[in-house]
Structure formats: C-alpha cells, structure tokens
Specification:
about 210 residues, six-stranded mixed sheet, about 35% helix
C-alpha cells in the first residue's frame, strides 16, 4: 500500500477534494520552463472527450519526467483535466479558460440558457514502468438565461478566469445553475467516485 500520492496540479479545488477523501498528497508541480499552454491547446476538430484524455495523459508524462529528475521516493502520480463543452456546437466543442474579458463574455453568452457538458479526466500513474490508468466522468449542467449585466458583474468578480467554461460551480457561478446531472465534484475538477476507483487500483491508502 502507498501512504500518499503525488498531485501534479496547482488547482486548490483538487487539493480540497483529496483532503475531503482523506488522501495524503505531496505536490509535484511544473517547473517554470515547462510549456503547459501547448499541452492544453486543442487540436483542430478535436472532440472534448478526446481532448481531456489526451491532455491528462500528456500531463501525466510530464509529471513522470519531473519525478524522474527529482530524486524523490516513488508514489503514484495523479493528474486531471477538466473542460466544458457544447457538443457539436461549431464554436463550443471545447470551451477552455478565457484569455480575457471579451473571451469570458463570449463563453458565458454561449452557455446562457443551455445545457452543456463538463468532462473531467483523471489519470493515475501506478508505477514508473506502466502506462497511467484513466477514467473520464461526464456531467450535464443546465445554465440559466443570463442578462448581459449579470455576465458583466460576474466577470468583474474575476472568478471566471483560470476556469474552463469561464465559471466556477463552487463559487458565485453556482447561482447560475438550476440543475446538474452527474458529479458535483467532477464539475469542480476531480470526480470523487472515479478518483477513488483509480486510487484503490493503485493501492493507495486513505486516512
């Protein structure tokens, strides 16, 4: 059994969820020279599920390389990626993190009044010589009809930035969501059920 894991994510929400699960973790974060933006850039015509699976495995490979250079003792490595999607929408198959105010306005306007999907992929590298094991959780989220004044006020709070789909369900953005079908923790960025399945397979103990 492993008494802890390495978390290769800077997301405070993922850290919070692991603590909720009673899982001990150490951070294994990217160095300043690593190019994370290129990893997260969608490929032409890429579907949302393919995207989150590819990005999570790319993050896993980068994290394993980081561990190999670190001199740290081995423990399973957890990586995750979350994206928001309006399936088959010409401009909304993958709605990532907004780059500026105009982009946040565009994304939130697209989501207004619509049902969209939130896809969270989790991968655990069980040993340095094995491919990561991976699961994807997909939730459906209904968004309320938003007035432009609501969108502007929300963007002014700065919450949309750094979040896929330009909103955070655990924050002010939760007030725009009348219903979900799926996993609340998955929408936050780390689905508890799927994560526990993977950690059990990796023989990670919890508190």
């Amino acid at each position: 059994m492993h008494s802890f894991i390495y978390l290769a994510s800077q997301s405070p929400r993922r850290q919070e969820i692991l603590r909720q699960m009673g899982v001990r973790f150490e951070m294994l974060l990217p160095s300043p020279g690593e190019d994370n933006e290129s990893i997260e850039t969608p490929l032409p015509q890429e579907k949302a599920r393919t995207y989150v699976e590819r990005v999570t495995l790319a993050k896993s490979a980068a994290a394993l390389s980081r561990w190999e250079k670190s001199g740290l003792p081995w423990a399973p490595i957890l990586c995750a990626d979350t994206t928001v999607s309006l399936p088959n929408h010409p401009n909304g198959e993958i709605l990532g993190k907004p780059v500026d105010v105009a982009d946040a306005t565009r994304i939130l306007t697209m989501l207004s009044g619509k049902m969209h999907e939130v896809l969270s992929s989790v991968a655990v590298t069980v040993s340095p010589n094995e491919k990561p094991i991976q699961l994807v959780q997909i939730s459906q989220v209904q968004f309320a009809d938003l007035l432009i004044e609501q969108i502007d006020a929300y963007i002014a709070s700065a919450e949309p930035f750094g979040k896929a789909g330009a909103y955070g369900i655990q924050g002010l953005g939760g007030s725009f969501i009348p219903s979900i079908q799926g996993s609340y923790s998955g929408i936050m960025g780390l689905p508890i059920y799927e994560t526990k399945l993977l950690l059990d397979r990796a023989q990670v103990s919890s508190l």
